[in-house]
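Sequence design from tokenized structure. All designs in this work follow the same two-part layout: the structure record, then the generated sequence. An example of the structure record is given first.
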């Protein structure tokens, strides 16, 4: 089976690509799946984590399938050709090293504008990666020191969620990229488990005001409320997503969550909920930080 990676792989295209690939594999049950990179011209952090989780998921759930990769003619012999810059970017960001076990070009090195692709182990906590990410963000994002502490706590809870109850066979992954021309950093975290919406349905049917939770977007929204948790572990206090909203407010950034058939986007203090055209297996969280804003020196409000 040939799987062509789309020309652009981002938040908008990841849902369809993810679902379509899994549906095709489920129907045809191929012996070989070949991921083809000929069309790829641009990939964002959301596309990076989605593609990584997709490959890991296939490997975990269909061990009988052999996964292979093909590249454009001339790629390996002409590494400086600008037509192949998206593949070079993947190589520099450790993608091929993580999924294939080795770089395509031995000289590939992580770029200053990226926080390299990291797999999140389903059985152990990734505190070292969180610490590294916080230090990397401190060099680029205008937040007070105290806010970075809260961000570390929020990421810890999100990673705990992946380990404890996402149900993802391969854990998940994370990746961040700095876009200097846009004054923006996108940090994406994703897993291929049951998803926030499905997990929330096992515990809740109404919100704190007694309103029925109907759509997947409703359940995602409720998960961002203060102290809302499925409480599968004492480590999680339901603070992760809610804390992120406060940090986003301080930074004037944005947050987007995709899970199952729902989407939530948050910026400028407002939430936009919608049903998505397709199905995202698991959960994708994209945090967009502004690098050209600085918090005013005022009383820190991120307290619980």
């Amino acid at each position: 089976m040939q799987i062509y990676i789309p020309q652009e792989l981002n938040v908008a295209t990841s849902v369809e690509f993810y679902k379509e690939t899994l549906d095709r594999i489920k129907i045809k049950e191929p012996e070989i799946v070949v991921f083809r990179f000929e069309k790829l011209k641009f990939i964002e952090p959301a596309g990076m984590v989605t593609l990584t989780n997709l490959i890991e998921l296939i490997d975990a759930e269909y061990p009988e399938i052999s996964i292979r990769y093909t590249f454009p003619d001339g790629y390996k012999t002409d590494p400086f050709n600008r037509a192949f810059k998206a593949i070079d970017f993947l190589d520099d960001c450790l993608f091929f090293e993580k999924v294939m076990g080795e770089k395509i070009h031995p000289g590939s090195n992580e770029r200053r504008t990226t926080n390299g692709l990291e797999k999140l182990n389903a059985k152990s906590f990734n505190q070292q990666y969180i610490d590294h990410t916080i230090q990397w963000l401190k060099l680029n994002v205008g937040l007070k020191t105290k806010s970075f502490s809260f961000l570390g706590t929020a990421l810890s809870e999100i990673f705990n969620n992946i380990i404890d109850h996402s149900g993802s066979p391969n854990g998940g992954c994370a990746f961040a990229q700095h876009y200097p021309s846009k004054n923006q950093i996108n940090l994406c975290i994703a897993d291929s488990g049951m998803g926030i919406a499905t997990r929330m349905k096992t515990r809740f049917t109404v919100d704190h005001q007694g309103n029925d939770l109907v759509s997947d977007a409703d359940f995602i929204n409720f998960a961002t409320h203060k102290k809302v948790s499925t409480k599968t572990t004492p480590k999680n206090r339901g603070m992760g997503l809610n804390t992120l909203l406060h940090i986003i407010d301080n930074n004037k950034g944005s947050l987007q969550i995709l899970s199952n058939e729902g989407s939530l986007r948050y910026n400028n203090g407002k939430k936009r909920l919608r049903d998505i055209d397709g199905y995202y297996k698991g959960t994708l969280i994209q945090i967009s930080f502004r690098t050209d804003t600085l918090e005013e020196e005022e009383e820190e409000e991120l307290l619980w």
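The domain at 1-104 is CATH 3.30.750.24 (Transcription Regulator spoIIAA). We note this feature because it recurs in several other targets discussed in the main text.
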